[in-house]
Design goal:
The protein folds into 2 domains: 74 residues, 2-Layer Sandwich (Phosphorylase Kinase, domain 1), CATH 3.30.200; 241 residues, Transferase(Phosphotransferase), domain 1, CATH 1.10.510.10. The protein is built from 10 helices and 9 strands. A hairpin with a 2-residue loop joins strand 4 and strand 5. It has 334 residues and is an alpha+beta fold. 36% of the residues lie in helices and 15% in strands. Helix 3 packs antiparallel against helix 5 and helix 3 packs antiparallel against helix 8. Strands 1-2-3-5-4 form a 5-stranded antiparallel β-sheet, with helices on one face. The relative contact order is 0.16.
Length: 334
């Protein structure tokens, strides 16, 4: 493959919708990541527009913790986004080794700060997950992959009407139902991500994607270990099933987080307790999802949304292709 002005060096990740290459931008002699839309989608306006909108939305969110976009172009039939090359790995790898509580809180604050700027521009990310949180080599956290983000001021959402879209383990209940979303969907996903950063475990894990989604719709967030209990109320409010029950914006959520962190420091701030206590954490049981299939109002509608997702393809949001070189493939965002 050839792209004018760039010397392609190697493919670094592959997803269902795009591939990412490491390349050199010849004019500036700098290493970049180039995300290229898969050729099978170039004749599908919905996908080409979604792809190019990702770059434009990323470029519009001017924040030091949002990945930098260098160029968005269509060269012949090649649709591509050139962005900074990130070689510091991703959040998933850091969580595998355990995060100190203070670090998890700092990461959440940073993500919230980046999202606050996006939300002011009426952009909802809709796909917050560890593989979309990257790090520069100097440790700077970066939010990436706005591939399924929604602009609230646009009439067209570029999705299948009534379909759920997002990643099953971090999906808000309203996304699961295929409903309209706003910034509070990101707050929900932040709460789920924070739980995992603290404990090393996802709060909801079903036997299948459908069961996991049903847990998001119906199950309570599992209790944190005692040593992390000051954060329980914050996570529960961030991840409330109804959007109206959540914090009204990420700024309010972070204020509550800061208060909980002060409480935690006062009661559990010993360094011996600062690493995750995942030995005592149990995800919500998959049996809850099975039990609520027939009991949850709208379960049939949720099932229909998941069927549509199957047709559209969960692979559109899989963690497979992103602007980062990482020794662990699971770190690569789509």
């Amino acid at each position: 493959m050839e792209i004018p002005g760039y010397q392609i060096e190697e493919k670094i990740s592959q997803g269902g919708m795009a591939q990412v290459y490491r390349a050199v931008q010849e004019s500036l002699e700098r290493t970049v990541a180039i995300k290229v839309l898969s050729p099978v989608f170039v004749d599908a306006p919905e996908f080409t527009q979604r792809f190019l909108n990702e770059g434009r939305m990323l470029a519009s969110v001017a924040h030091s913790n949002v990945i930098t976009i260098h160029d968005i172009r269509v060269a012949g039939t090649v649709h591509y986004i050139a962005m900074e090359f990130v070689d510091g790995g991703g959040l998933r790898g850091r969580m595998r080794h355990g995060l100190e509580v203070g670090m998890a809180v700092d990461y959440l604050r940073t993500l919230a700060s980046a999202l606050e700027v996006a939300h002011r521009k009426e952009i909802v990310h809709r796909d917050l997950k560890p593989s979309n949180v990257l790090f520069r080599s100097d440790g700077t956290l970066l939010l990436s992959d706005f591939g399924i983000a929604k602009e609230l001021n646009r009439e067209s959402d570029l999705t299948v009407t009534g379909s759920a879209i997002g990643s099953p383990h971090y999906l808000s209940p309203e996304q699961a139902r295929g409903m309209d979303v706003d910034a509070r969907a990101d707050i929900y996903s932040l709460g789920i991500l924070f739980y995992e950063m603290l404990t090393g475990s996802k709060p909801f894990v079903g036997d299948s994607d459908f069961d996991t989604i049903m847990l998001h719709v119906s199950a309570d967030v599992p209790a944190l270990p005692d040593a992390l209990s000051p954060f329980q109320a914050v996570i529960e409010k961030m991840s409330a099933k109804e959007a109206d029950a959540r914090y009204e914006d990420v700024g309010v959520a972070i204020s509550a987080l800061d208060a909980a962190f002060v409480d935690w420091q006062a009661n559990f701030g010993d360094e011996a307790l600062t690493r995750r206590a995942n030995a005592n954490v149990v995800s919500a049981p998959a049996s809850v999802a099975h039990e609520t299939r027939s009991k949850t109002p709208g379960a049939a509608g949720i099932a229909a949304a998941v069927v549509i997702v199957g047709a559209l393809g969960w692979w559109l949001t899989r963690d497979e292709a992103g602007p980062v070189a990482d020794p662990a493939p699971a770190e690569l965002p789509r």
